[in-house]
Amino acid sequence: MNTSVRIAPGLVLKNPVLSASGTFAYGEEFSRLFDLGLLGGIVTKGLSLNPKEGNPLPRVYETPCGLINAIGLENIGADAFISGKLPELRSFGTPVIVNFFGSSEEDYALLASRLDVNGIAAIEMNVSCPNVKQGGLEFGRDPEVLFRLTGAVRARTGKPLIVKLTPMVSDIGAMAQAARAGGADAITCANTIPAMAIDEHTWRPVLGNVTGGLSGPAIKPVALKLVWEVSKKVDIPIIASGGACTWNDCVQFLLAGASAVEIGSASLRDPLCFTDIITGIEHYLESRGLDSVTDLIGKLETP
Amino acid sequence: MNDVLAVVKGNRAVARDTFLMDLDCALEPSLPGQFLMVKVSSSCELFLRRPLAILGQGEGTLEILYKLKGEGTLELSRKKPGDVLWVLGPLGNCFSPPQNGESALFVAGGTGLPPVLALASRVGSGALVIGARSKGDIPLLDRMNSLKGVAVYPVTEDGSLGRRGMATDVLGELLAGAAGPCAVYACGPRGMLEKACELSGVAAARCEVSLEEYMACGFGVCSACTVKTSAGPRRVCSNGPVFDAATIAWGAR
How many CB atoms lie within 10 A of CB B134? Predict the structure, then answer.
């Protein structure tokens, strides 16, 4: 049985199960719980050029079947990651995909060139960040801005480039096409959904940042539909991200058109879920008499 | 740290909205101050685990003491003997025991009793100040009183048990009256911890506090519980929950 999937030239995953950005830190903690080499790939916490402090507390709040987070992209910065975290992380024998973000096109491009080092298998660009020079609108909300940003980053890196789209657009297919035209090798679909929580007793927002992003199984049906939409519009591989907790969820995302699936919130609840999910997919293939994960990708049968 | 299946042996109310749960569970040995992430429901509707301090641990057994705070602890309170729960732990760091002849002063308020009582039981000497709104809010008073070598000082806001006032009122007096060096160990509301830190500073006593913050993972990956300290940002779950009180940036949150 072949569980491997191809995401980009030079980026083949041994199975379609990845960690997700922001719920895996830089891998150290999870490496004490299980062999990271079992994963299809490791997606790191989002990095910026310089270390970033993050938002005031509280930063998380549970909602039915999920959580809202407003961590604020706290991270140690690209240099500290490359010198302090990457050497161990790359030793697990699974591709290291580095998530990154910026506040201007120049930031993104400079950071992409900084991350063009040995040991990083691919970079995943978070475009759900405000464009400081253009009135604060997120880069991922305007196809022209996203096309330019992707092109600027493409020009500065030899790594496979994955663009992680925001779900907060009216036509996500058009955003995926813009990223592809700009030079993206693959699309991650999607990200958390903006949300908030209010304390009716104090009349105050629960989160220190007032608003945050909803994740977890609550958003899975939304993500499934977004993946399906994107798969109809672009021919590059899609990595699903949005509420997958079980092998069943992963198979659904694969059928919708994803080539791989990131496991995020589920790993906060069940840090050992990755191994169950990977073996679950294998058993599913076996029970269906399928030779390869690729036999599932995009095979949704619509009426 | 490991994720282990625990079997509920007992689960009973021991004070107002406060429950003591006994579990059969083969957890690695823990130290006072460490905690668990308890999966309160197998349904993902209650999605996150709940961070709960370890009150006691024996051969294959665990004790947790928890207060009803919301849906997660309500679900926990409904568990019956024979029910099973996944617990991830032991997590976080621990208190450092008294050293160089220090007298131990334990201070607990609100939900902060379990790690402090776990430490007081281990140390077996010193004074334990337990603060609460009212007499009915104080659990396990018999157990505290049975600790040989530990003097127990209940303090209630309404005066229904022990002194009327705040736990830190008594802490201030104990520090002022101490003959030698003291180590203060505190867990409870943030205001209480900040006051304990201030009083310890004045008395030149070492002060360790166990912090509580909203957490998602409990083992250092999500950065939900990052607090500001003089040594930079620190995660309560994995760098703490126990911190040298003097390093906490109390005003910043």
Answer: 14
Q: What is the mean pLDDT of chain B?
A: 97
Inter-chain residue contact B224 with A60, CB threshold 8 Å: yes
Determine the residue of chain A that is closest to B219 in CA distance. A29
Q: Which two tokens stand for residue A286?
A: 């076996």
Residue linked to tokens 């169950």:
A276
Mean pLDDT across B6-14: 98
Mean pLDDT calculated for residue range A113-141? 92
* CATH annotation of B211-253: 2.10.240.10
pLDDT in the model for residue B20 = 98
DSSP code of A82? Answer: I
Q: Which CATH architecture has domain B103-208?
A: 3-Layer(aba) Sandwich (3.40)
Domain layout of chain B by residue ranges: 2-91, 103-208, 211-253
Hey, which residues 44-103 in chain B have their CB within 8 Å of chain A?
44-49, 72, 86, 88
Q: Is the pLDDT of residue B207 over 90?
A: yes
Residue A137 has a pLDDT of 85
**Distance from C-alpha of B234 to C-alpha of B226, rounded to nearest angstrom:** 5
CATH number for the domain whose boundaries are A5-295? 3.20.20.70
> Average pLDDT for residues A55-76, to the nearest whole number?
97
CATH 2.40.30.10 assigned to B2-91: yes
Q: How far apart are CA A69 and CA A63, in angstroms?
A: 10
Residue A122 predicted with pLDDT over 80: yes
The terminus-to-terminus CA distance of chain A in angstroms comes to 30
pLDDT at A134: 79
A129 is catalytic: yes
**Residue B253 and residue B251: Cα distance in Å, rounded?**
7
CB–CB contact B227 A65 (8 Å): no
Name every residue in A having a CB less than 8 A away from some CB of B. 22-25, 28-30, 32-33, 45, 53-54, 56-67, 69, 71, 74, 208, 216-217, 245, 265, 267-272
Q: How confident is the model at residue B253 (pLDDT cuts 50, 70, 90)?
A: low
